[in-house]
Amino acid sequence: MRSALDIAQSVRAGGSARAAVEATVAAVAARNEELNVFLHVDADAALAEADAIDARVAAGEDPGILAGVPVAIKDNICQTGVPTTCSSKILEGWRPPYNATVIDRLRAAGAIPFGKTNLDEFAMGSSTENSAFGPTRNPLDPSRVPGGSSGGSAAAVAANMTPLSLGSDTGGSIRQPAALCGLVGVKPTYGLVSRYGLIAFASSLDQIGPFAHSVTDAALLLEAISGHDPLDSTSLPEPAPSLVAHVNDGVAGKRVAWVRELVEGADESVVASVEKAREALRDAGATIVELSIPELRLGLSAYYLIAPAEASSNLARYDGVRFGQRVDGEDVTAMMEATRTAGFGAEVKRRIMLGTYALSAGYFDAYYGQALKVRTLMIEAFSRAYGEADMLLGATTPSVAFEFGSKTKDPMAMYLSDVFTIPTNLAGDAAISVPVGTGEAGLPIGVQLLGPGRSEASLFAAARVLEKAEGRS
Amino acid sequence: MSADLTREDVIKVAALARLRLTDAEVDLFRDQLAAVLGHADDLASLGADNVAPTAHPFGLTNVLREDVIRPSVDRDIVLAAAPDAQDGRFGVPRIVGEAP
User: Crossing angle for the helix pair A4-12 and A43-58, nearest 10 degrees?
Assistant: First the structure.
């Protein structure tokens, strides 16, 4: 399919935004029933937005760096006029009264938000099997999962429905599905992209980011949506960084650390892809060092206390009073219990229970309090590593895309598929997954580059080196 | 400590979280939560007594903005999304019991 950069350049020069949206409408019609990518599509509204873009260009205006580019939106990002469900029955039918900042930023850049994509309920999961509206299938092999929780957004791009999409990454929910679908996926520095209008799962970890086929397209989208937002009190104070201009900066003179804990336990083919990436970066002029960061092994345990604790608090708002579904009860407590019991799926209940337990009297210090200390240890360990290297290299996921049902019976097995991505969220840092090599059944493998906060430009440049080494110009 | 997680603990936590569980769910969640908490026991053995906790990656405090009036969502639009609204307020079932 045409790249986002190509579409935007063409539309800005008088090409047709309508044609770009029509291509998306046709691709969705061809495969959405099979893959279950979109929960909601309003093709007429998107075509009307495209016509407005074309009219502006005809009138001599420049709509922006994403002119006429359709962008699929994860259905935990609020957009007025269409439902936002978080793939949960508890929000079924709800229409948000305001736009997320990223929706306004997309339109300010000339992009066209196109449809709401499936996810694991409230972004809790790693396979999109936890959706109340059925699983999404991996476009590269429909017998396998696309990853999650942003599985619909990954599948939209992998199936060439839209050139770009937005997901959210709390413990790997962009990078893991990007790896499993053969895409570039980015978890930006915490605070780089406004969370205003992103329905909260774990507020100290959540971050919106891009999916794309290429590093340049991902940079284009991230540049359009980032920058300070006064509506998000955790938003970084500075404007959007310049990313596209630096994607070809290369890695000459950069120090890249191969990190033992970011490959251990991964399948042989995944380890081989990381080796391949290491050689490509070395060939491009980077200095390779090897590091061990044992604290990273604590990430999974700390995450599965901190994220559920925050979720148990954030999801208390779904009580049948102000929005969403209500199931009646004889008094207010009975109504709330009936509503939440009927509205939430099993994984959401499991995490609310886990978080409530970790925060409850008598267990707070041992679980939640201890996890916050581990978070400090992890940040300090990353900080030491970034004294010895400019960026870290490892795997994104332990394996290629897995088959439906293979991990649903055992939550811990599912949680382990995020073991390499979680540490970045705990530290608030940036990371990118880029496809390098293939594994079982020819399925793609993602290699991960991690950097300190605000290091996106260097990470994109390094990812671009790997993309070129793989023969994708 | 997680091996000690009992059915009663699960029932108590469910009540705190405003969730009702079937007997089968209580057993299932007991086993699954114990497995996750078993991993967390690794953290307890770290001896991080002198480490400060991190609740937020960049430790932002007292984020201020200009005190400027901006439009907010109209009350009628907000109430229209509620399952029940009466007289400009959210409607809920009875909160307090009958007088004895």
Answer: 50
Give domain status of residue B15, yes or no.
yes
Residue range A4-246, CATH number = 3.90.1300.10
**Residue A277: count of CB within 10 angstroms of its CB:** 28
Beta-carbon contacts of A334 under 8 Å, excluding residues fewer than 6 positions away, are: B93
A149 catalytically annotated: yes
Is residue B33 in a domain? Answer: yes
A276 is catalytic: no
Residue pairs between chains A and B whose CB atoms are closer than 8 Å = 161
Q: Which of A150, A173, A312, A433 is catalytic?
A: A173
Per CATH, domain A255-298+373-465 is 3.40.630.30:
no
Domain boundaries, chain A: 4-246, 255-298+373-465, 302-365
pLDDT tens digits for B30-39? 999 999 999 8
- Is residue B57 assigned to a domain? no
Amino acid at A399: S
pLDDT tens digits, one per residue of A115-174: 999 999 999 999 999 999 999 999 999 999 999 999 999 999 999 999 999 999 999 999
Which pLDDT score is estimated for A330?
92
